[in-house]
What we know:
It is a single chain. By secondary structure, this protein is α+β, with helices and mostly antiparallel strands. Among the domains are: 2-98, no CATH class; 113-157 and 387-427, TATA-Binding Protein; 269-354, Sandwich (Tumour Suppressor Smad4). The chain is 35% helix and 34% strand. The protein contains ten helices and 20 strands. The strands form four sheets. Strands 4, 9, 10, 11, 17 and 18 form a six-stranded antiparallel β-sheet that branches. The protein has a five-stranded antiparallel β-sheet with strand order 1-20-19-3-2, with helices on one face. The two termini are 59 Å apart.
Amino acid sequence: MKIFRKIIAFISDLRIAIALLLIIAVSSGLGTSIPQNELSANYFELYSKKPWLGIFNAEMILRLEMDHIYTSSWFLSLLAWLGLSLIICSWRRQWPALKAALSWIDYKEPRQLSKLALAETQAIPEDELSLEKLALRLQQKGWQVKQKHLRLAARKGVIGRVGPPLVHFGLIVLMFGAVWGALNGQKVERFLAPGRSFELLDRNGINQLTLQLNEFGIERDSVGRPEQFRSKIELIEPGENAGNLQEISVNHPLRFKGLTVYQADWSLAAITLQIGKSPLLQLPLSNFPELGEQVWGLILPTSPDNSERVLLSLSNETGPIQIYGSNGELILNLRPGGPAGEINGLSIRVSEVLPASGLLLKRDPGVPLVYAGFALTLIGGGLSIIATRHLWAVADPKQSALHLGGLCNRNLSGLANELPSLFNQSKA
């Protein structure tokens, strides 16, 4: 039993809780400094030659689960430990303190009041009448009063004592929601061209929702820089032929039955060409990071034996489409919807370039709990500001004296300044 009590005392120790908070805060900071949930190859590319902080190379980052800190076993263990610490602390300290604050303490003797933080005695005749006046004055100022023969007890701001346990409970709910979301949430990022769709599956491979992109547009400024992306998407639930049509844009996501769809990025999906007198051909575009941050293109043969290849490259859907020969020299520029150009005796015309919308889908079942935890914590913190005051008065008929004593968890000087006025008004 003693060992169990020592373990409980250690887990609920305030210093341990503060240390856990600091470790969790530092770990969260690491999660913003190190890219999260990337492919292992990306970490070797980033940190093999130049370790992070000069210490952590790719192997250490992967071994310590720093590539997915918020869902790592050690981070979730820290949250569980902190949550358990708050539960035990609330059970051992906050709940008894709240029950004590809500219960009425009946002091019957003047010597009991003399031991309180504030105590004062004055001679007042007509003891019962003085107590009645004091009780009436306290009630007018918002005090709760419980009166008995030759004594009374009063309290004010008891709601403030609800604050600390409410803060603890809010933090517990918040952490539980964060862990629940990390373990059961879904995050999917897709690039979709207009007219295409994909299915959002659950862990058992069952279709939960079909998302179809109907339209995608890029708004650009006068010099061609993108300002806004807009996607018209259709959400089709299983068993339904028609879906819910909505428009999303940057900073204006769509929320649908616990799912949030963000407009996150854009890309170029395909280019439609006419080669000679052929029908229109829609060819997929690939990203070429070695040519630039946002450069797409394709390799196109211009002879029947797949020789004399050229590179078509472009950086946006409006063009120009730059065509380079095998020696790396620029041959010509084409515009979508513009006239054809001749390459190695072959006529090529660009009909259109098809952009793709970058969509980020998140389903986090813990979000309502996280928001509720934040709300409870803020409410509890606000309530904790309210000072809780207790006041007792005992009349002594033998000495014709009235004894007052008081306690306050904050702003004790304010209650001390209020006592003389209460005495004077009880005399009047």
